[in-house]
Amino acid sequence: xxxxxxxxxxxxxxxxxxxxAPAFADEASSITITGSATLTSEYRLRGISQxxxxxxxxxxxxxxxxxxxxxxxxxxxxxxxxxxxxDNMELDLLAGYTKSVGGVTVDGGLIYxxxxxxxxxxxxxxxxxxxxxxxxxxxxxxxxxGTFWAPSQKDIAVAPKAKGHNIWVYTDWGLPVxxxxxxxxxxxxxxxxxxxxxKGLDVIDYGIGADFAYKxxxxxxxxxxxxxxxxxxxxxGNGRATGHDITKGGLVATVSAAF
Length: 259
Hints:
By secondary structure, the protein is mainly beta. Helix content is 4%, strand content 54%. Strands 2-5-6-7-8-9-10-11-12-13-14-15 form a 12-stranded antiparallel barrel. The protein is globular. The two termini are 14 Å apart.
């Protein structure tokens, strides 16, 4: 997901970074276009694997205006527990606004999650979230504090024909290692609500790792997981992997190319 759109979303995943991507700009219209293409050993959304611990291909693009408004899209392959209604693709559509205020940057907007291949008649798995964050320097480190909030809506409910909601609060930290292409990363998140994403549980997700940058390429190695117990993990597992497999910690390798 470009700085990853999942981090502007997010992610999400610890590979959602503080690095900047090269851009194409139209000076006359003050438009900037950024994007990325990613290959990851697995797609983790808020600590939970959406691909049964299998690899995923991801890509995204963002169109920004000098005023601070932007629109974007991001997509990833899915498998196993991440295939809502048999869908093998997640498509995110977003619009937001960002602005620097003093020494910090504020960002906020709306993201709409689409599962175009869902094949259960009469059932939709699409839903939306509002997001916001503030980021800046804390000493030598880059820091971000943000939240994603899904208001009550039926497409994310745990129980059929009910409504579900969810809130995710997270913090990301990045510490560049002086004189090297390495940035040490840390992430902590907390989800709460009665949505099908966390199966109605309160979930802590975490990650620790590092970025290795070379020109427009970034390799991220991170250990990512959740605090979901082995007993509670049984709520997942409608794929090849067990619920414990997709919620416990694991090493994730990601290579991203920015353009």
